[in-house]
TrEMBL record:
Keyword annotations of the record: Coiled coil, Lyase, Periplasm, Signal
UniProt main location, coarse: periplasm
UniProt domain Heparinase II/III-like C-terminal: residue ranges: 373-628
Organism of this sequence: Zhongshania aliphaticivorans
Any coiled-coil regions, as ranges: 38-65
Span of the signal peptide: 1-24
Protein name: Exo-oligoalginate lyase
PANTHER family per the UniProt record, alphabetical: HEPARIN-SULFATE LYASE (PTHR39210)
Domain Alginate lyase: 73-290
Cellular localisation: Periplasm
GO molecular-function term, one example from the UniProt record: exo-oligoalginate lyase activity
Length: 728
């Protein structure tokens, strides 16, 4: 019965397509006019010429081999997986090269590939290696099948003028229509999912509809299988982006999902401009492109949630995004990003970018301190990015929603970058993408047992349990809350009251610029309230080599034990402990050619634990990373008060070291009923005072007196500088 339904479906859509094919007269990706302009002008535009040459080299290398369209058998990273990826890209690339060079060998090659796939596809069932995700046919998960069609349909679009009617009939009847059916009907659960998998599927089906002149395909892509609008492309734009353009799964998946969003939107913009898709939701897709750029440091995306840390601004998805955004806005700041990407898409948008760069119209892209709200309505917390005046330093604080299934249990966690390096890091995902020997490239077991767990992040952990006990459904019900953000002060306060029953915690962080220090000072004040006593752990995952410890730790010399038994603790070796005595504890490490000092206040029963990742790791899946874990046990209410200073220089080539010790002499913290003062006392005198009120109302006045000196300020937070320590 299912085969009969499928044949009826295909017959219907072929007929519908034939009836409406005359409507598909506008190319959705590369117009004849743009192709001719590229052909005429590419030798005058170095970036465009380089992109064409790169494309030619890749296609020519594949053309030099015998065409191979193998029966699918391998998981991600295996031969058949990679071959189908290359073939799909080659159909798109060769068709593009035909348009811009006029060389018929490229059209012939792309046509031969399409015909071979039209011969293979009807023979295929679900992929033999499918695991946890819905099965594709060419690939082990249907997501990859959708990605393949996004590329291939663009190639088919550019070949239609040279294909015979018989060739078009074979390709559409045996490949394109059955492919659409498999994505949208046979795999309707994925197709209608509000998720990046659904986005790719909707884009693939919708773009196929635009090329074939099949409005039914376009409509189900935009509004879901039943055309109700409860799913589909428009619903995904509504649900997955905040009003600021932040994508709920985080920067890494924002980058990945960006391509189907913007490529399908640009196709709609060209073929059916009546949708005005780039104005939809106050232009949120353009905002998403800018957000994707700004959620990066030193060309790499902030690795929040399930993120692979190699991905950056030069990823192909963002090349599409930047070219499209520039074509629509003519923002010269985008040209700086495009020049850094060192490639353009070979179409009309890429032509405009290459022309702008050649005409020296670019301006620096300004990376800002900014708060990106999370949630469709912007009411589910957010991610704050705080940058130093010259953008040399960046502090990222996550107080957002869970991030769906790719989210980690890391409420109020942070990352810190300085002088081009990751200083306080986030692990990202435990995964080796497309590495066959690492379980085929899937997310590894340690992604659940380690990377998602709270102790893997720079955030509070209570009683060695992860936030929400590691339960996705519970975590997805609520979000962190950003209660204060100031770009002027470069600081924020965020709170979390649901991660642990009966425990609330609030974190105030900032990159504070003062005239007393050459570099901004990272402040970190964690306030915890509970009616019951708990153990509180606050880890700092530092990159570098420890060079100074203000005390004598007890180090495990010839035997180590794990820090705990579950919730990620089983993966940490306990390398030693440092007991503290209610005074400032200072730990300094060398990262590259720069020194960093963590200065922290802990009560007399607190301790610093030196930990290293790698325990209970039989397949060596985990990277070896180091942490300083601040611990306070048997307490109800508590504070963690710390500052991190960047200082000095180490030059191994010229053999000199400058200022390897911190400028911070000590910290003290004065707490009153509704406000507190953090004193950062500097070596040689002088101090920085951070005044913080419990209330965030900007109109309220506050006064605190300490040792005969009165501090007055308005609003939640204020910074005072004292050239000398006036209380001494």
């Amino acid at each position: 019965m299912s085969k009969l339904v499928g044949l009826i479906f295909i017959s219907f859509v072929v007929l519908l397509s034939a009836c409406s094919s005359s409507e598909a007269t506008v190319s959705m990706s590369l117009s004849i006019e743009d192709a001719m302009n590229i052909r005429k002008k590419s030798n005058e535009l170095p970036l465009l010429e380089k992109s064409i040459n790169t494309m030619e080299a890749e296609v020519n290398a594949l053309m030099a081999q015998e065409i191979d369209v193998p029966v699918p058998r391998d998981a991600g990273g295996g031969y058949t997986h990679e071959r189908h990826k290359k073939n799909g890209a080659a159909i798109y690339q060769a068709a593009t090269l035909y348009q811009v060079t006029g060389d018929e060998k490229y059209a012939d090659f792309a046509t031969d590939l399409l015909l071979k796939y039209a011969q293979l596809y009807p023979q295929l069932g679900p992929h033999p290696q499918h695991k946890h995700q819905a099965a594709g046919k060419l690939f082990w998960q249907i997501l990859n099948d959708a990605v393949w069609l996004v590329y291939v349909i663009q190639g088919y679009d550019q070949l239609q003028a040279v294909l015979t009617e018989d060739q078009k009939s074979i390709i559409e009847t045996n490949l394109l229509h059955p492919y659409v059916k498999y994505l949208s009907v046979d795999s309707s659960e994925t197709f209608n999912k509000v998720h990046n998998h659904g986005t790719w599927a909707a884009a693939a089906v919708g773009m196929t509809g635009l090329v074939l002149g099949n409005q039914d395909y376009v409509d189900i892509a935009l509004k879901g299988s039943d055309k109700s609008g409860n799913s589909g492309f428009l619903k995904q734009i509504d649900s997955l982006f905040s009003p600021d353009g932040y994508y709920t799964e985080g920067p890494y998946y924002q980058r990945y999902a960006l391509m189907p969003f913007v490529v399908f939107a640009r196709a709609l913009d060209r073929v059916q401009p009546q949708w005005e898709i780039f104005k939809y939701r106050d232009g949120v897709l353009l905002k998403a492109i800018y957000a994707c750029i700004n959620l990066s440091y030193n060309n790499r995306f902030f690795p929040l949630n399930d993120a692979i840390k190699d991905k950056g601004l030069d990823t192909i998805e963002l090349v599409h995004g930047v070219d499209i955004a520039y074509a629509l806005t003519k923002d010269p700041g985008l040209l700086a990003i495009a020049e850094n990407q060192n490639q353009v898409i070979v179409n009309g948008d890429g032509l405009l970018v290459a022309q702008g760069i050649a005409a020296k119209q670019k301006k620096d892209f300004i990376f800002k301190s900014i708060l990106y709200r999370d949630g469709a309505a912007g009411d589910e917390g957010g991610v704050a990015v705080l940058r130093s005046n010259n953008a040399e330093s960046a502090l990222v604080v996550k107080a957002a929603g869970q991030g769906m299934g790719h989210g980690h249990f890391d409420r109020l966690g942070f990352l810190y970058y300085d002088h081009g390096t990751e200083v306080i890091s986030d692990y990202g995902a435990a995964r080796y993408l497309n590495v066959v020997t690492k379980r085929g490239g899937i997310y590894l077991p340690e992604n659940k047992t380690w990377a998602k767990q709270s102790i893997a992040h720079n955030t509070l952990v209570v009683d060695e349990r992860s936030h929400f006990n590691g339960k996705l459904a519970k975590a997805s019900e609520t979000s962190g809350q950003v209660t204060f953000f100031s770009g002027k002060l470069n600081a924020l306060t965020a709170s979390e009251k649901n991660a642990y029953p009966g425990v609330t915690f609030e974190r105030t962080m900032g990159l504070i610029h003062t005239t007393l220090l050459d570099s901004p000072l990272l402040i970190d004040i964690m306030k915890i309230n509970s009616s019951e006593k708990h153990q509180y752990d606050l880890p700092f995952y530092y990159n570098g080599q420890l060079t100074f410890i203000s005390g004598k730790p007890e180090i495990a010399m010839n035997r180590m034990e794990t820090l705990g038994e579950d919730n990620g603790y089983q993966h940490l070796w306990n390398k030693g402990q440092l007991s503290v005595d209610n005074s400032t504890t200072q730990l300094t490490w060398l990262n590259g050619n720069r020194f960093y000092s963590l200065n922290t206040l802990l009560p007399s029963d607190g301790e610093v634990i030196f930990a290293e990742l790698g325990a209970n790791d039989p397949e060596f899946n985990l990277r070896r990373e180091n942490a300083l874990v601040l611990r306070q046990a048997d307490r109800s209410d508590a504070y963690f008060v710390s500052v991190i200073e960047s200082h000095g220089e180490y030059n191994g080539v010229k053999e000199y070291t400058l200022q390897p010790t911190s400028n911070v002499a000590s910290l003290s913290h004065q707490m009153e009923q509704d406000a507190s003062l953090l004193f950062v006392n500097l070596v040689g005198g002088g101090r920085i005072v951070i005044a913080k009120a419990d209330e965030v109302d900007a109109s309220l006045q506050h006064t605190l007196s300490v040792s005969g000196k009165t501090y007055e300020w308005q609003g939640h937070l204020a910074v005072f500088e004292e050239a000398t320590n006036e209380s001494e």
